[in-house]
Write a structure and sequence with these properties.
Blueprint lengths: L1 H12 L3 H17 L3 H17 L3 H18 L2 H18 L1 H17 L3 H17 L3 H18 L2 H17 L3 H11 L6 H6 L14 H10 L1
């Protein structure tokens, strides 16, 4: 099961979302067969993410609602918070107000638990919604916090994805110099459920080598 879980992440990072969905479904079968309830719950959220990425949003919402409903009985606050963060993002696709409210609750739960992976997803969702609405100060706060959550973990792939959202903030703020640096730092990483679900306008990839990460982080935090 752990191998399939790792293959899910690998497929997401390389844009092979059909493969990612297949790996989650196989892993779910293993978890169910061996009565691995916490793993099964987490894998349901991964399947929801993969379903959303392949355009099957209604099924994704059903899956994440099931995971979120079942999580409290497992006795893991982290599972509840994580399912809540994914749920908030998926809800935002059809109902931004409900998605914002659910993400806010999930972020607070994740931060109370010191669970930065969940808070990063929630903060990126809130930042993306604020950016869509032209609320640049709120977007700046949420996206910086998402970046800090992932950089504190040394989670390079999620740092890159967060830098790409901050490049969108730079564009909205009239900072073309920062857009160039942050996009090159963000590179072509894939696997952001917030991008998959909220589908922001594409930003052109910039030619040239990526800047030093420390330079990109300083610039992102100065926006």
């Amino acid at each position: 099961m752990n191998a399939r879980r790792a293959l899910f992440f690998r497929a997401r990072m390389t844009g092979r979302d059909d493969d990612a969905l297949r790996w989650t479904e196989e892993a779910l079968e293993v978890a169910a067969a061996h009565d691995m309830v916490p793993w099964h719950n987490e894998l349901q959220t991964f399947r929801a993410i993969a379903l959303a990425a392949t355009g099957r949003l209604d099924e994704a919402l059903e899956q994440v609602e099931a995971a979120h409903h079942a999580a409290p009985a497992i006795g893991s606050p982290a599972l509840v918070a994580w399912a809540g963060a994914v749920r908030g993002c998926l809800l935002a696709a059809e109902d931004p107000r409900a998605g914002r409210a659910a993400s806010d609750v999930a972020v607070r739960a994740c931060e109370d638990l010191d669970y930065p992976i969940g808070s990063g997803v929630g903060r990126r969702t809130l930042g993306a919604l604020a950016l869509r609405d032209g609320e640049l100060d709120a977007a700046r706060d949420h996206l910086r916090r998402a970046l800090d959550a992932y950089s504190g973990l040394g989670y390079a792939a999620e740092v890159a994805l967060s830098l790409r959202w901050l490049a969108r903030l730079a564009q909205a703020s009239g900072r073309p110099d920062a857009v160039d640096v942050l996009l090159r730092a963000g590179g072509g990483a894939r696997g952001d459920v917030v991008e998959d679900v909220l589908r922001p306008a594409a930003l052109d990839r910039r030619a040239g080598p990526p800047p030093p990460l420390t330079e990109a982080l300083v610039l992102a935090r100065s926006l």
